[in-house]
UniProtKB/TrEMBL annotation:
<dbReference type="InterPro" id="IPR047773">
    <property type="entry name" value="YHYH_dom_bact"/>
</dbReference>
<feature type="compositionally biased region" description="Low complexity">
    <location>
        <begin position="58"/>
        <end position="85"/>
    </location>
</feature>
<dbReference type="Pfam" id="PF07833">
    <property type="entry name" value="Cu_amine_oxidN1"/>
</dbReference>
<feature type="region of interest" description="Disordered">
    <location>
        <begin position="57"/>
        <end position="85"/>
    </location>
</feature>
<protein>
    <submittedName>
        <fullName>Copper amine oxidase</fullName>
    </submittedName>
</protein>
<dbReference type="InterPro" id="IPR012854">
    <property type="entry name" value="Cu_amine_oxidase-like_N"/>
</dbReference>
<feature type="signal peptide">
    <location>
        <begin position="1"/>
        <end position="22"/>
    </location>
</feature>
<keyword id="KW-0732">Signal</keyword>
<dbReference type="InterPro" id="IPR036582">
    <property type="entry name" value="Mao_N_sf"/>
</dbReference>
<feature type="domain" description="Copper amine oxidase-like N-terminal">
    <location>
        <begin position="96"/>
        <end position="202"/>
    </location>
</feature>
Length: 206
């Protein structure tokens, strides 16, 4: 008799504890349901899925479980810098036998080499120029001195003998430019350059 009473008492306690931990609402086949009524009273959030049998609850709100990224991309795309021009104005003044050579196009500097327009420097030094447009070659002659240059080629012929120069003759904005030192040497002239006032003096010896 006492054993039956003890068993009944334990059963009542289990039932009452289950009732205390529960709240209104039908459960599904898994023994749980979604809270819709008096959720805060039972320590739950509205819409939270939980179990009445003490199982762990699972929130149905995606906002609660999905962390929000507060980081923003700070990477800035940098535009490539424009390339520096290959040629710059040199401000060079050229004198031949004391007379200043006039240029229609500005003398330029490229890789620290002074370039001058071919036509004006040839006329200023009294040289004759012949063109072979098919071959892209230029013949220049004054007296017994003759040289042959080719646009874009560093090979120069002095009286038929080939030599390699630092900078090739170039066609820039429709104007043929030649290295002034190479040109003067090909005609047998001497040069004297002053960096102080950017002046180049050309003369023939004797």
């Amino acid at each position: 008799m006492k054993k039956k009473m003890i068993c009944c008492t334990i059963a009542l306690l289990l039932i009452s504890s289950s009732v205390v931990s529960a709240h209104p609402g039908r459960t599904d086949a898994r023994g749980g349901h979604t809270c819709r009524t008096n959720c805060e009273r039972w320590g739950l959030s509205y819409g939270e899925y939980h179990y009445h049998n003490g199982g762990s609850s699972s929130g149905s709100k995606s906002a609660a479980s999905a962390p929000k990224s507060s980081q923003k991309s700070t990477t800035k795309s940098t535009a490539p810098k424009p390339a520096a021009p290959a040629y710059t104005k040199s401000g060079l003044s050229v004198y031949f036998n004391g007379s200043k050579v006039k240029f229609d196009s500005e003398p330029l500097v490229y890789n620290n080499i002074n370039l001058v327009p071919l036509r004006e420097i040839a006329e200023g030094m009294g040289a004759q120029v012949t063109w072979n447009r098919d071959a892209g070659s230029i013949g220049v002659q004054r007296g017994n001195h003759k040289m042959t240059l080719t646009i874009g080629s560093k090979t120069v012929y002095y009286n038929g003998k080939s030599e390699t120069v630092t900078v090739a003759p170039k066609l820039i904005n429709g104007v043929t430019y030649v290295p002034i030192q190479v040109f003067a040497r090909g005609l047998g002239a001497g040069i004297n350059y002053s960096d102080y006032d950017k002046t180049l003096r050309i003369s023939f010896g004797g």
